[in-house]
């Protein structure tokens, strides 16, 4: 069976796996973004706090993803739970690092001006600092998403959702007629999803970042 014939006969299952893969990455990115920005907001004013936040999240990436999922299985079981925890933790570093850099890069004169017109610290953060730090934060989100697209395939080891199941099935049946087709379909599917997500982030940047800041 050729690759195109395999796609035509398995397209429903592949679309389902692709949707589950994209959904898992998207949901974990939302959680990672909220946590990452929160960590950055707490830590960016302190030199040691920022270094601790970046070092801690960087340490997570030194753990092999397969090992991380394997260690979580006895604690939370198989399926979605270890996938969500692993992807969320792995997605933190680029977001935390870029958010800290972005918040520290805000012009102090703008913060002083906001203080001068009576804005509270929370109002300054939400209306001045975070909007100006949004471009580097968005860049961090893009980097994290690309990483998680690949790491999410490992979730199939723990019976997680996504295109990794297609890849693992192909690897487990190497030598059979459709083994290469399965691995290739899963791999190409992940690449396509990564490109679609990145295009969406480019569009989001154009819609949310003023031209003056982009320039």
Outline the structure in words.
This protein is 81% helix and 0% strand. By secondary structure, the protein is mostly helical. 36% of the residues are buried. The model has no long low-confidence stretch (mean pLDDT 90). α2 packs antiparallel against α5. The protein contains ten helices and no strands.
Number of helices: 10
Helix content: over 70%
End-to-end distance, in Å?
A: 51 Å
Sheet-strand content, in percent, reads: under 5%
* Beta strands, count: 0
User: What's the story with the biggest beta sheet?
Assistant: none
Radius of gyration: 20 Å
Morphology: elongated
Mean pLDDT: 90
Structural class: mainly alpha
Which ranges are low-confidence, i.e. pLDDT below 50, for 5 or more consecutive residues?
none
List the helices and strands in order: HHHHHHHHHH
Observed structural traits:
about 80% helix; mainly alpha; about 220 residues
Task: Give a topology summary.
Elements: H1 3-43, H2 47-61, H3 65-76, H4 80-90, H5 92-104, H6 108-116, H7 121-151, H8 164-172, H9 179-208, H10 211-214
Quick summary:
The chain is an all-alpha fold and 215 residues long.
């Amino acid at each position: 069976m050729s690759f195109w014939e395999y796609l035509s006969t398995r397209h429903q299952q592949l679309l389902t796996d692709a949707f589950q893969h994209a959904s898992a990455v998207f949901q974990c990115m939302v959680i990672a973004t909220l946590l990452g920005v929160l960590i950055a907001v707490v830590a960016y004013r302190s030199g040691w706090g920022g270094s601790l936040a970046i070092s801690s999240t960087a340490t997570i990436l030194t753990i092999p993803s397969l090992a991380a999922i394997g260690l979580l299985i006895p604690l939370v079981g198989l399926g979605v739970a270890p996938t969500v925890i692993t992807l969320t933790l792995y997605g933190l570093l680029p977001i935390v690092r870029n958010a800290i850099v972005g918040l520290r890069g805000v012009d102090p004169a703008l913060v002083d001006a906001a203080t001068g017109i009576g804005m509270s610290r929370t109002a300054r953060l939400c209306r001045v600092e975070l909007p100006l730090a949004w471009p580097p934060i968005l860049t961090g989100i893009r980097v994290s998403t690309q990483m998680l697209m690949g790491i999410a395939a490992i979730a199939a080891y723990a019976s997680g959702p996504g295109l990794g199941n297609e890849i693992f099935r192909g690897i487990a049946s190497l030598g059979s007629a459709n083994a290469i087709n399965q691995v290739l379909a899963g791999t190409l599917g992940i690449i396509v999803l990564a490109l679609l997500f990145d295009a969406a982030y480019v569009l989001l940047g154009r819609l949310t970042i003023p031209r003056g800041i982009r320039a």
